[in-house]
């Protein structure tokens, strides 16, 4: 169930999980989910609906950019509209295509997963860096201070009760949305390079020429991305450069806001935990229990919403079963919820996305006031 990563992680908090807590839960859940797929004679990977979604999201992303690049845009309103539509497609690719592909859950053919994972590179990020940040660190050490890179925030944001607090954090619930919107701008400019260097120091990219090759690939992919997303539009669109750049940034703001909110409300919530290891470096729960304690679902009854955000409203299922394509999460969520209840493990869920956002704001406000908790 858990993705196995044997790479040595140096220089970060690398806790171990207890092997004495509800170990039968994982085995029981794995067997029940496996039985579901066998009984219904379906694959745990993508189906026709997933392939259709892939085509739709790629079209929504690329079609507006193609229209911009052929020089057919002459008004700022049309330019902004096309870039924003492309931003929605970009978010769809991030949440609904590359996410499954990089987890290896899109297809049983790993070459297909690899190629579709490159859609991350086509929207300006980097699949290799994302895989370490997300698959290895976030999925293994969810909500653990110093280990989960999704809560390792810059000084002006505080996502964990164990993180250092400063005066700015009192207002983070107001300004966090601006930085959520800028998150993908950070990806396409500096974050991939900063994290590549950091991950090299942690023991990744340690094969011969591994770091150099990874760096060259990042540079190459970003040159391709910036060429069609910004440089060519600057050359062919008969509008002032500052308008084109602003429209380009609006595309990323839409993407960043959508993706950040969806991912963050799943973990930074009133009912999610931020456990710390004991003095021996051990988390008191096993890995599966830990995922349930640190993750929340939201809006489970909205099929359209779930389709649009890549099934990430079923974050509990995703964290427990990252090798299952998200297109199946709604159907297996009942199995997960029932099994958790049987073993007396909390199954966190919010009825609507709005309710989840409101609770997320409440946690951000609280984190801006309370002093660091050390246990």
TrEMBL record:
Q: Where is this region: Disordered?
A: 1-25
Q: Where is the Fatty acid desaturase domain?
A: 77-349
Composition bias, Polar residues? 1-10
Segments traversing the membrane? 50-70, 77-98, 174-194, 214-236, 242-263
Name the keywords, alphabetized: Membrane, Transmembrane, Transmembrane helix
Q: Which PANTHER family match?
A: DELTA(5) FATTY ACID DESATURASE C-RELATED, FATTY ACID DESATURASE 2
Q: What is this protein called?
A: Acyl-CoA desaturase
Q: Give the organism, scientific name.
A: Flagellimonas okinawensis
Per the UniProt record, the lineage of the source organism begins with: Bacteria, Pseudomonadati, Bacteroidota, Flavobacteriia, Flavobacteriales
């Amino acid at each position: 169930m858990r993705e196995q990563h044997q790479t040595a992680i140096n220089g970060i908090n690398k806790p171990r999980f207890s092997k004495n807590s509800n170990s039968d839960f994982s085995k029981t859940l794995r067997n029940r989910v496996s039985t579901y797929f066998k009984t219904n004679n379906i694959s745990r990977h993508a189906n026709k609906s997933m392939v259709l979604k892939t085509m739709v999201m790629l079209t929504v992303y690329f079609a507006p950019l193609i229209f911009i690049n052929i020089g057919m845009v002459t008004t700022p309103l049309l330019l902004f509209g096309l870039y924003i539509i492309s931003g929605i497609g970009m978010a769809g690719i991030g949440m609904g295509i590359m996410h499954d592909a990089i987890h290896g859950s899109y297809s049983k053919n790993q070459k297909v997963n690899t190629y579709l994972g490159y859609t991350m590179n086509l929207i300006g990020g980097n699949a290799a860096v994302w895989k370490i940040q997300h698959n290895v660190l976030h999925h293994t050490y969810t909500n653990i201070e110093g280990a989960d890179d999704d809560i390792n925030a810059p000084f002006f944001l505080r996502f964990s009760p164990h993180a250092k607090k400063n005066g700015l954090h009192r207002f983070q619930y107001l300004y966090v949305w601006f930085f959520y919107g800028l998150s993908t701008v950070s990806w396409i400019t500096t974050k991939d390079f900063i994290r590549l260097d950091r991950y090299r120091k942690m023991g990744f990219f340690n094969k011969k020429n591994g770091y150099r090759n990874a760096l060259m690939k990042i540079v190459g992919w970003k040159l391709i991305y910036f060429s069609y997303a910004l440089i060519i539009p600057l050359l062919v669109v008969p509008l002032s450069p500052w308008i084109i750049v602003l429209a380009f940034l609006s595309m990323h703001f839409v993407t960043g806001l959508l993706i950040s909110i969806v991912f963050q409300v799943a973990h930074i919530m009133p009912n999610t935990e931020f456990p710390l290891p004991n003095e021996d470096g051990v988390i008191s729960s096993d890995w599966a229990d830990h995922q349930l304690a640190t993750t929340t679902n939201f809006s489970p009854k909205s099929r359209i919403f779930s389709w649009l955000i890549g099934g990430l409203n079923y974050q509990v299922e995703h964290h427990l079963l990252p090798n299952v394509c998200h297109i199946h999460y709604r159907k297996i969520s009942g199995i997960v919820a029932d099994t958790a209840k049987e073993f007396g493990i909390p199954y966190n869920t919010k009825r609507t996305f709005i309710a989840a956002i409101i609770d997320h704001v409440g946690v951000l406000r609280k984190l801006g006031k309370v002093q660091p908790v050390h246990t």
